[in-house]
Amino acid sequence: MSKEFILPPALEKGDKVAVMATSAGIKDRFPAAFEKGLERLEERFNLEPVIYDTAEKDTEYLNKNPKEKAEEFMQAFEHPEIKGVIAVTGGDEQLRMLKHLEPERLKNNPTRFYGLSDNTNLQMYLWNLGIQSFYAGQLVPDLMSGGEIGEYTYEHLEKAFFEDSLGTVEASDKFTDEFVDIAADEITDGRKRYESSGWEFWNFDGETVEGKLFGGCFEIIDWQMATQKYMPEPEELEGTVLALETSEEAPSATTVKRWLMCMGENGVLEKFSAILVGRPIRTPLHGEERTEEEKEEYNEKQKQRIREEIQRYTPETPVVFDVDFGHTDPKLPLQLGAEVEIKPEKEQIKFK
């Protein structure tokens, strides 16, 4: 039986949104970026940020107090004036706050939640409760983009904030996988832009494929597979569409292959009706610089290893590569838990 989901009520212009550190903290390290994100919420989206206590804390404090983060998250869902919850950024310890959550407090007060990367942990928790959430929209770095790629992100965030569906989405014309300098005193977006070749539809037979959307950051899904506490049972994933994207650490193609191999051996990979793969960051945030040729080679190697694992474990599953979501820009705020239709003949994805 297909899992039923609740879409929390849409926001309205002027609504209050909670801004909180659901993972790491950034205000102490990147104050200009923090203020830039708040400014965008206010001026671009006409939302009123309510700064919660965790947003003021540093990462060391937050990592020592996962219960406090969980309590604040639940309080925001319960607050009658808070219409949405915005994560300040990602990190790597959100997993530790999940055991402190009380499911009924969230389930009885469904609220729209926006974030990505480490926030996949909370989004999986909400997915298990049958609550839709949005994979994008966090303060840093999602609200740092400028120009055309920024508008692609913001136009889709408008729908994620104020409407019930993203509707039909298509590939962006340009992209960047470089990083905004969030440590600068003034935040600007001078990153190199690349022409987009569109989304690559592989292994389709021309027919529309549909299913409810599940997924997020691949590293976090791998942690969830290892933890085996919050990952849905395989039968719950039957017929769903899997969304996967890799983080700013730019894991090797071999690492991605091993993650998929484990999903195959666990009997999970075969459950999905299709897979959406986000365009990857091709140079690690803290790694050596790569030439343009090396960047292209990285992307192609990752695609090839994904194709090989699909052919080994579930050879009929179609995949869309280089979709605009995840750690690169621009980004679609994927509506996790929503029904999606993948239309290869039109090169479109429709959220229903």
If you had to describe this structure to a student in words, what would you say it looks like?
This protein is an alpha/beta fold and 352 residues long. The protein has 2 domains: 16-143, Murein tetrapeptidase LD-carboxypeptidase, N-terminal domain (Rossmann fold, 3-Layer(aba) Sandwich), CATH 3.40.50.10740; 169-351, LD-carboxypeptidase A C-terminal domain-like (Glucose Oxidase, domain 1), CATH 3.50.30.60. It is 30% helix and 19% strand. It contains 9 helices and 16 strands. The protein has helices at residues 31-43, 59-64, 66-78, 103-107, 120-128, 147-162, 218-227, 253-265, 292-313; strands at residues 16-20, 48-51, 82-87, 112-115, 133-135, 168-169, 174-175, 194-195, 200-202, 209-217, 241-245, 274-278, 319-323, 334-336, 339-343, 348-351. An 8-stranded mixed β-sheet has the order 6-16-15-10-11-12-13-9. Helix 9 (292-313) links the parallel strand 12 (274-278) and strand 13 (319-323). The chain starts with 15 loop residues before the first strand and ends with a strand.
